[in-house]
Design a protein that fits this description.
- The chain has a two-stranded antiparallel ribbon with strand order 1-2. The protein has a two-stranded antiparallel ribbon with strand order 3-4.
- Helices cover 43% and strands 8% of the residues.
- It is elongated, with a radius of gyration of 30 Å.
- The protein is mostly helical.
Amino acid sequence: MLDKICEYCNIKFLLPKAGKKEQARRFCGPICSRRWAANNRSDTWKQKASLAKQGENNPMFNISQTNPNSLANLNRKGLTDKRQTEESNRKRSIALVGKEVKPESIKKMIQTKIDKGIFWKPDDPEYIEFKKYRRKVYYWTSKNDLTQLEHHEKRSRVGYHLDHKYSITEGFKNKVPPKVIGSVYNLEFIPYNVNVSKGTKCSIKLEELYVLFSCRN
């Protein structure tokens, strides 16, 4: 038996024999060996490796773009109309928790939504009125008994979200009373990925909402 310490991860490991081969061993396994080699390659080695893959030494040298191995010619027709499963989207959402988005990307997304009329500029007087309207809608929304809605027990960040069928943004633009937008007849629980992709779109017509609201009040 021979006790050794890995030169990469500094973790102690045990070898069943103590021969010359075991005495010369420096790493606990091939992964640590490869990682150490990748971190300790000389500039001369990197330059030689780079030159070795240029010109005729490149495996794809002088191969036409019709070659099936060419990335430019991969057949992507199989992905048409394909959608990720809810479980796959849920796992991806969890994996993205804590990931930082570049400020430039955030500004670009906000500007796109401003151009589409989904967002308002922070200094826009209409935006201040919209925030007041939205608070009133949330007030009336909180007054409802949400347990009478389907899927209420599945409510979570990556499960089901509470959605306003006729969106708050459209309600503000069309001057719909906050009590109507926040009524239980305009609420439903839908999968979070559907809610995120829906944005400010409406899944019910305003006339239908008014009929439901007036008939049951």
